[in-house]
C-alpha cells in the first residue's frame, strides 16, 4: 500500500513552524507580512522541488500544479489549505493541509502514478483574517464570492493595504483567481476541537460546516448607586447581559448548536455602580440553517422580553453571517472507505470552524479530512496533533486524492 | 417657628459647587487636593463668619465649635458630613450636611438661643475614598477605628501620601482625632437613592445602614474555540460568571438586600474564544447582618455547585466588609417628631450608602436625616435635590439639633 513519507511531512511542518517567531517567541505569520513571505518562500521551494508548476494569482493564492500532457485538458482535482496564522499560533492549523497536499502529490509522482486529471495544491491567502477582514478571503475571492480589486484594497488593522503588502512581499500574482475550475476540492485539517481526541477517533470525514452568526449586542440600562437603589427600581444592563448568556446556553442545548459570549464590556465598570451599559458579542453556530435561524429568532424574542422585564433598551449589530455548508456525500464516503481500508477509526464530523473548503464548496464538490487535536487546543502554541495521527490523516488524504484524480491509465 | 435662611443655604451650596471644576468642567474635589483645599478655605471662612472656633485635627477633619462659658464642660452635640467629592460629582452629596450644619448653628446663635451643650459641625476628611482608601477615613480615624499615623501614610491612586498632601494644602492640624467626645451625632444628607422621590416623601428618618460586603471573584475555565468545542466539553468562565449574577438577583429578592456585579473582565475577551477567565466584583448589601451573612454563605455554596456543574475553579478575595449599623431609636423618633411638627411627610429609611455617621455611631448615639434625590441620581453632575426639599430638611435638622443640644437655659 502506497504511503507518504511521514518523516518528511513532520520535518516540513516543524520547519514551517519555526518561521515567524516574534520578539517574544510567539509564532505569528499574519497574511502578507514579512514573516508570512518567509513561509511562502519555503513552501514555494517545496513546490518547485516536487516539480510542480508554481502559479500565484492576483489575490496571492499560491498553487502547485501537477499536470501532464495526457491530463492537462481535464478539470483538476484541487487540494490545499493556508499557511497564514493567528497571533501566537500553533504549527498545524492550515499548514498540515498545504504541506500534506504537496507530500501527497510528490508521493504519487515519485511512485510513477499517472492520474486521470491534474492535481493542484493551493495555499490560500489570509484564511485567518486577523490582519485583513474578512477571513477565508483568498478562497472566497477564488470562488467568486468577492471581487479581487475590492479584496486587494482591504485596509488592515495596522493601516496597511493588502494589495500593497502582497506586492511588497512579492506575492501579488497576475493570474485571475478562479483561473482553474476544480472538479472537486479536498482539504486535510486538524479538528481544532476535542471530539476526536475524547472519542479516540483517528479520521474525521467532514460532511458539513456550521453556519456562523455573530452579533454585537448593546444593552442600555441606568447607572445608579449599588447601595441606594432598590432592586425593583434597577435597570441593570450587566444583569440583563448575564441573563442573555444563560438563555443562550439553554437555547443551544435544545437546538444542538453552540453559543459563546466571548467579549463583554460594562459601563461605567465600577464596583458600586449599577452598570448603565453592557456591550457583548454573541457567536451562535449550528450546522442546520433552519435551526440557526430559529435560535436567532428566539434570541430576538428574548431581547423583547428583557426590555420589558428589566427596563433596558437592547440593540444589535450583525458582525458576521455565514450559512451552514453541506459537503459532498460522495467524497465523504470515499474518505470513510479510505479510513476503513487502512484500519483507522473514522466518524462523520461537522466543522465547527470556518474553512477554505467552505468557499471552494461554492464551485465544486468538496469535503474535508480531520485529524485529532489533542485537548481540542488550537490557535495556541500548545496546538498539537500526534505525528502518527498527522501521518495517518495524510495517508488517507493520499488514497482519497488518488481515487478522486482517477487511477493510472 | 425658627427657620434657617434658605436663600443663604442654597447660595452657599452653589458657591461650593462651583469649586473644583476641572479642564472638562467636571466638578472634582478629591481629598487633600488643591481643589478641595479651595473648598475647605471657603467653608473655613463660613465657620469663622459664624463666630465658631475653627479646629483642624491631625487627619484633617475640620470642626466649627460653638460653645459658651456656661456649656463648655458638657459633651457636645456633633453634626456634619464631608466636602470631598468623587470625580465628576454633584453639588449636594456631603456638602448639604456641612453647610446645613453651619447654617443651623448660625441660626440658633443669631436667634439668641443658648443650648445646654456645645454644638460642633465637622467636615470629615476623605469620605469618598476615591484618591485614598478606605473611604470614610476621617470619621473612621476620629472614632478610633484606624490609627492616625497609618491613615496619614496612605498612598493614593496618584502615588501621593495623604499626610504630605494635607500638610501641603495647609490642612494637617495638630489636635488628636477624637479630641471631643460627642454626646450624639446627627448628619443631614441627600438620599442618593430613588425611594423618597418615587414615594414623594420629604424627610427620611434614617434608622440603620446596610452592611456592605465586597468580593472580587475569579473564575477559571478553559479557553477553547467557540465553534469546535461542543457544549458538554466547555468550561466557560464567562457563562459561570453570568450564572452568578442571575443567582445573586434571586438571592436578594428573597433576603431583601441588594446585589450588584458592577465590574467584569473576560480573558481572552475574543469573539470566537470561550472565556478562560472571568474576574468580577460582587457588591452585596443588607441592613440585617444575619441575612447578609446568610446570603454570602449561599453564594459560597453556589460557587461550589458551579465548580462541579461548569468544570470551573472559583476563588474569591474580600475587598470590603462593613457590618450593618443600627442608629439610635431615640434620635430617629426625634427626627420623626420634628418632621411631623413641620407638616412634612416622613418615613424611616435604611442608608444604602456608607456614611460618616456610621463611624460616629461607634462612639455615640447617632442618626441621619435624608432629603430626596430626584431620580435617585448621585455621584453625577445631575445629582439634584429641590431647593424646597433641601431647606425643609435643614429646618428639621435645626429642630433636631435644638432638641438634642438642650433647650435654652
Automatic annotation (TrEMBL), chains A, B:
Cofactor binding: number and manner: Binds 2 Zn(2+) ions per subunit.
Annotated residues for binding of Zn(2+) 1: 82, 93, 189
GO molecular-function terms, A-Z: hydrolase activity, acting on carbon-nitrogen (but not peptide) bonds, in linear amidines; metal ion binding
Record protein name field: N-carbamoyl-L-amino-acid hydrolase
Binding annotation for Zn(2+) 2: 93, 128, 379
Cofactor dependency: Zn(2+)
Pfam families per UniProt: M20_dimer (PF07687), Peptidase_M20 (PF01546)
NCBIfam families linked to this entry: hydantase
The entry's keywords: Hydrolase, Metal-binding, Zinc
Organism of origin: Enterocloster lavalensis
Domain Peptidase M20 dimerisation positions: 210-307
Similarity remark: Belongs to the peptidase M20 family.
